[in-house]
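User: Second chain of the day. Same drill as before.
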Amino acid sequence: MRYVLAVAVAAMCLGLFGTSSVRADEMKVKGVLIDQMCAAKMMDKDDPQAAAEEHKKACCEKCAKDGGLAVISGKKMYKLDDAGKEAALKYLKKHDNMNVIVDGDEKDGTLSGVKIHEDKEKAKKEG
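Assistant: Same format as last time:
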C-alpha cells in the first residue's frame, strides 16, 4: 500500500513540474510604450527611457499606423509583434499613461503573447 501511494505522489509531482505554465522566455517589462520609428531615435539618447517619457501619445498613435510599437525599458527596446501592436493600440484608446508593464514572451528582442497593463506606480509619481 505504501509503495502504491509513493508512486502516485511521485507521478503527481512530476506531472505538476512537467506542465508548469512559466516558460524560460516569459518576462515582465516595465517601460514606456512608443512607436518603433521614434523609439529608434530615443535609443541614441543617454537615457532612452527618460527621453521616451517625453514622447506624445498622439505621435505614438499616428506613427504606429504605418509601423510597429515597442517598449523602451532602461536602455533596451523591445519590439511588439503584430498581436502585441493590436493590444497596445487598444490600451492607448483607454489610457493616457504611456508607462506600462508588459507581460510576454521574448525572443530576439521581440515580445509576443503580450498583456499590457498601466504602470500605476509611475502614474502616481508623475501625477
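Residues 2-18 form the longest helix (17 residues).

User: Great, on to the next one.
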